[in-house]
Amino acid sequence: MRRHSLCYIVFVSLLATAASSAQTKRTDLLKAMVLTGQNNHGWQVLSEHYRNILEETGLFDVDVVTSPPSGADMTGFNPDFDRYDVIVFEYNGDRWPTAVEKSFERYMRNGGGMVFGHAVNHTFKDWRAFNEMMGIGGWGGRDESAGPFVKYRNGQLVLDHSPGHPGECVDAHEYSVVTRAPEHPIMRGLPSVWLHGTDELYSNQRGPAKNMTILATAYSDPAREAHWGERTHGTGEHEPMAHTVRFGQGRVFGTAMGHVDGGAPMGSGPWPAMECIGFTTMIQRGAEWAATGNVTQPVPHGFPTATAAQFR
Ligand code: ZN
Fold first, then answer.
1. Is it the case that residue 16 has pLDDT exceeding 90?
2. CATH for 156
């Protein structure tokens, strides 16, 4: 009997704690929107993952905004970007109403923040400003008009105007990510080389690449098969894996990493690309930098080493 009473008291006080913390929702947190709802990859899984890893930092208050499904009427889709410090894209789908696209461009020009990973770079081929924000992209019907191939050669970003459709995907495997901008706030303190969990490796991306800085690259091994592009094998070059773009006053962090199979249901996994501590750290730091221009997060314990991938 006494034990029941104690349980009851504990239960009631837990309820009271939950209620009071809801009432005293912190206002000092950065506001992040995870924008999702359409993607040929597992957006349900990845958008929830983004919410979790951003909230884990203790820096962000996160809302997940879900668009109508592909092909549905978009007229009611009108996210209020200005309420947020950073918009994290897990979206690769239909165009938005013109007014919404214009409001996002305004938001970014005026100092907004944007983060995107993996297949987001397929989207919005014909939305010029969005492609300037991303810097580079692939697939989605893109060709030479998207901009030059963006390469990392002899220690610097190189624009290559060779012909060809952008985007190949080397078979998923663990690969080494090489830091190329160690003094950038997102990269500070990270190892010069770390092993990423099994992921697809994008190569031959094209784009406007204006005001773009390559933060990290990975070697596209010609001994490995490549798919969904013009090449059948890796390029034999170090390809951009993470980068930043300045768009007006806005800041963009993008990464090619983070594959999750399309149609993956909630709770499925594990997905080594997204569970990799290297990937999650890049997203967490990239989001803070995009929101504020600075990074206060230390390198987490258990970060991958040159020879060992590490997972959450
Ligand atoms: Zn993929």
1. no
2. 3.40.50.880
